[in-house]
Amino acid sequence: MPVKSGRGGADVPGVKTNEREGTRAVLRHSRTSAYKVRQVLDLIRGQDVDRAAEILALGDREAAVTVAKVLASAVANAVHNDGLDAEELFVSACYADEGSTLKRWRPRARGRATRIRKRTSHITIIVSRMPEDRIARRRAQRAANTSQRSRRVAGSRRRQRSEAAESTPAVEDTGAEAWPEDATHADDLVTETEAGPLEESDFDEDTDTDNDADESDVDAEGEDIAEDGSVDSTEDDADDPGADQPDDDAEGETAEEKGK
Question: Which helix (H) or strand (E) holds 125?
């Protein structure tokens, strides 16, 4: 039997708005007039939950903040109480009823008073699961968008790699990096693989040759070796303070000659 729109009114086809199936959230006694709230609700009616949240976030009306909170509450009720997927929900119905009106008075001229009506409203939002065909179309659209994005990302990465390869110059591999500097510049370097394992006698010979070379350097600097093997130590004479002074006998002879 169809529902009537009032006492003795015409029949209303379908289900009443407040009797729709779905998960709902209700805010009562909101301090905003129903006229202002209805303008915001008209923007999100029939939209999916994500799109409705974007519209409310970008809206410039004060009632959009309140409606967004009610929408989030309805989605949370559908997820936690009914076990529905948030991505498959849409706003099936939303309406605002008039609440109680707070009456205040403002004094005016000549002792009169003007009535101030502070109106309230009851906001109701109902969310339901989208039809199967609409869900399938939405999934196909998301898959297409994802594939296009992945192709764009792969193409940009290939371009970056090609540009990097063109900008870097080619470097010839000489094999010198694998050896230290001393090994690359020494021609007479003998390794264990070429001459067999090294023994202690090899190291002793090297130390003996080094000591002989040091002694020869000292002889060349401090002493002058003659051909017959005698050594003239000029530096020792220079260091001796008594070398430059004459003998006492020589000084006495010179004094006697002067007295004569």
Answer: strand 113-129
**CB neighbourhood size of 120 (10 A):** 17
Question: How much is the pTM?
Answer: 0.53
Which of 113 and 221 is assigned the larger pLDDT? 113
Token pair 């409203």: residue: 121
39-48, 61-70, 96-105, 192-201: which range is least confident on average? 192-201
Q: Say whether 248 sits in a helix, a strand or coil.
A: helix
Structure token pair of residue 43: 């923007």
Query: CA 254 to CA 241: how far, in whole Å?
Result: 22
CA dist., res. 52 & res. 72, Å (int) = 10
CB 67 within 8 A of CB 37: yes
C-beta separation of 211 from 203 below 8 A: no
Q: Report the Cα–Cα distance between both ends of the chain, in Å, rounded.
A: 174
